[in-house]
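ok so i was messing around last nite and threw this chain in just to see what happens. nothing serious, just curious
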Amino acid sequence: MSESPMRAARELTRPVSVGGVVVGGGAPVSVQSMCTTDTADAAATLEQIEGLAAAGCEIVRVAIPSAAALDGFSEICARSPLPVVADIHFDHTLAIEACRRGAAALRVNPGNIGEWARVDAVIDEAGVAGIPIRIGVNAGSLDPAFAEREDLTHVEKLVGSATSFVEHFRERGFADIVLSAKAHGVPTTVEVNRALSRELPEVPLHIGVTEAGTLRQGTVKNAAAIGALLMEGIGDTMRLSLTADPVEEVNVAWDLLSAVGLRRLRPELVSCPTCGRCQWDLMGVAAEVERRLSGVRAPITVAVMGCVVNGPGEAKGADIGLAGGRGKAVLFASGEKIRTVDEADAVDELFAEIERRFA
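result:
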């Protein structure tokens, strides 16, 4: 895939290390999420991080809203199986302290930190600690030089703010930067990141739709915006924000990476839309297969088809699958029939074959 346009832009970005995860420089697009627990409660936060890691999360972010969370943050950094990014707003002293307590990276928005002297103190401390900073820009915290300009569009304000912040960090001698400029709308998200990729081609981009919504709406918005960017080679790391269990963010992220052909961690389920020719419980079987595939960690394609006659042919590209009708199902692999089984036993037979071939 090295010649693909999906890789071209990513290969131009500068590699930055977040703990043991490389972001940029053509490295695989990494998956992030953020804890919803109270960071002061280290035990609860670590339990959530363990669940995120099991789901495939590679970088985790935690909030430090006040000094009361710092002791918990120290323990989390010391025991986390994932690199921990400290999320800081407003209080620059918390960012400085996070550097000293084991953060693998910082996420700050210079637009809400305040005067440049405070931002510079954070930059300098991150440099001493040898950790990167994600500059996170959003509509609520723009560079004042751009925020009030009526001659600029929303996209231009976001791009201008992000670019000016990067330039300041560089002037300060700090190069380990990851950049994000987020919006809640799909067109704005795409336009902003396209522009940043053009204007700052060497800076790794963290992509995602902010405030995307609940599981269904948020998944659709992220798939539309982030899927488009990934197909254009834009984006080095991603967090798909959802108002849901953060494990769902990780699940959707991996499904999206798989759908655009960039990374596969788990099986892909292929199933046809049911129609009047269908003579078995296709929707029920597909739902059960999907549920059981959540425990499989092989990057295979599994098909569940509604028609015995056409199913294996239509799903020839699948590694393994079922096509059913009238109480029976054909178990097939790569378009070739393995055997016919009773419908009641079809799912068990399928997973026995998956275990035999791909475990």
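not much to say yet. The first strand starts at residue 16 and ends at 18.
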